[in-house]
Design goal:
7 helices, about 180 residues
């Protein structure tokens, strides 16, 4: 496995394995364990099959053979399908992150974001990847409770224990010369 450390993102092999196991469960495909993680995903076919299982027909046609541009097109189709499915745009990796192996950790982040997004789709009955996102927790307060909160000084304000800035002078005073 190519685990060269890059400035783009730190790779976590255990998360990568978790992603591959999830993909196997969802797609029912057998994935070769002799290939490095990024090589399994690189042509985009596994990603397209995954997306079609999560959202049937979301990628009606993808390339299973061809040149690099055909495979890069698969990755682009997967990215667009992710956004339509509900994955936040900032969580979707760039094509070069996977194709040129610039930031494989971001690819993993995208797949975890996709796994979390499946919780929002009641038609999907699992398996899921990652923790379930928190749901709304609305609170209501009485007028009396709100007024009581106004009298409390929060600890974030801190205290200066009576210290002031009077008597401090740093450096020379500013001189304004007129008429020169």
């Amino acid at each position: 496995m190519n685990t060269t450390k890059s400035s783009a993102g730190k790779r976590e092999p255990e998360k990568e394995n978790e992603v591959l196991e999830w993909i196997k469960e969802v797609t029912g495909e057998t994935i070769s364990s002799d290939l490095p993680y990024e090589d399994i995903l690189r042509d985009g076919t596994v990603l397209c099959k995954l997306m079609n299982k999560l959202s049937p027909g979301s990628i009606p046609k993808f390339n299973q053979n061809g040149g690099q541009f055909k495979f890069m097109e698969n990755i682009s189709k997967f990215q667009e399908a992710c956004k339509i499915y509900g994955v936040p745009e900032q969580d979707v990796f760039q094509t070069s992150d996977l194709w040129e192996r610039k930031d494989v950790a971001m690819v993993t982040t995208t797949l975890f974001a996709l796994g979390r997004t499946t919780y929002k789709h009641p038609e999907w009955q699992g398996p899921w990847l990652g923790p379930k996102p928190a749901s709304q927790n609305r609170r209501t307060f009485t007028e009396e409770q709100l007024r009581a909160g106004e009298a409390v000084i929060g600890l974030q304000y801190g205290t200066n224990k009576g210290a002031t800035q009077s008597g401090q002078s740093f450096g020379a005073t500013r001189k304004i010369l007129l008429g020169k």
